[in-house]
Protein: ABC1 atypical kinase-like domain-containing protein
Organism: Mycoemilia scoparia
Amino acid sequence: MLRLYHYGILAAGLGIGALGEAIKTIGQSNSATSTSNSNSNSQSSLFLNKSNIDRLVNKLSKMRGAALKLGQMLSIQDNTSNAISPELEQVLIRVQNSANYMPVKHLNKVMAKELGRSNGNSKDWKAGKFSEFNEIPFAAASIGQVHEAKLSKRLADKYGFERVAVKVQYPGSAISIDSDLDNLSSLLVMSRLLPRGMYLESTIASARKDLKLECDYEYEGSQLDKFGKLLSPENKNPGNSVGVFEAFRIPKLVPELSTKQVLTTEYIPGIPLSKTTKYDQETRNWIGSKIMELCLLELFKFGVMQTDPNWSNFLYDHQTKKIGLIDFGATRTFSPEFLDMYGRLLASAGYHNDRKLCEKVSLEIGYLTGHETRLMKDSHVDSVMILGEPFRFEGEYDFSNQTITHRIRETIPVMLKHRLTPPPEETYSLHRKLSGAYLLCAKLGAKVNCYVIFAKYLSKHF
């Protein structure tokens, strides 16, 4: 009820802000030549004036949960953010960068409930479990924050490590998902900030599914364990490139200090990959190659992918020359049937460089219905062919000179106007990871032989 009240106050404040902006610009409108811009774009600019942007950022950042997560999902997708209004993009970027930590008293309450004794005394939850616990988090995300701690001697001896990262979920995050997403959807529709063809309801549905998994730390712990086994060097075979399994490090889980709302894992060192841009070209090429290979390895060998491309989830340790993988809440499993079609789609745009085959597979997988205009079909095929460019380039593809983002951006207006069906549900999360890998390689200025990587995992489609 309180969250609904917050949204009500926010909606009222935004309306007042828009009205004030309209009154302020009446004089300017009367003196200016009338144009055809009195449409949803001008309404959006009125709605998202500076004061309203501040209201949105302030409220959504404090409420966190689904509201902040949806902002992250929309803003991290480069193709989507290029289709929305600059004003909304500004909101999403600011929300993504905002951080409001949980007060210590709330932290103690959650930890006592999850790890404390039956009497719920907040002083009991550390006893016999942690020798040290830093109450100030070193990282914060949409639904939780992360603390550094040290295990008690008993547990350190049992697990073979002392230093741990403890992720604690914000109270109410899980139960507020549905209402937060519904209310945020209403705000976006009311403000007309998203263009026709964006299929907001499909994005909301995907966010709902992902968030419910991400709010279950027991699920995340099981995926952490799964990836630890999948990426074990013992699991490699001659078909994999030398070193791909050795390239990654997965932290170990501490099961007895993990619940649905608390996740305790081994602390692994490293810096986010976004901060490795100063390294030499060879190192940046190596990082880009391993991240690109990880995408195809996850999809076409494992059938399961960690779909959150946030660069803070990938930590490079210069000492060990390994990439640490953390945060497996957004892990998705894909059916063999879907992966076969998606593999054929990538092959059509990559190795085969075949537009007709691309259109045929796009119909099968559900990107097209068959009733679209020729303009829409061509724009869709254009976008897929552009996406497949690195995979058909023989030799090292130089991401520093790529124009993929710009060229795909040019196809978006047509697709938003003429699209008859939303993209397949599986591709919402999959493309977040794949586009994130592209953007990372571009940021690093990496040169990657994507063709060789592609052939390794998709040779059956050649």
Q: What stands out?
A: The longest helix spans residues 2-31. The mean pLDDT is 81. The radius of gyration is 24 Å.
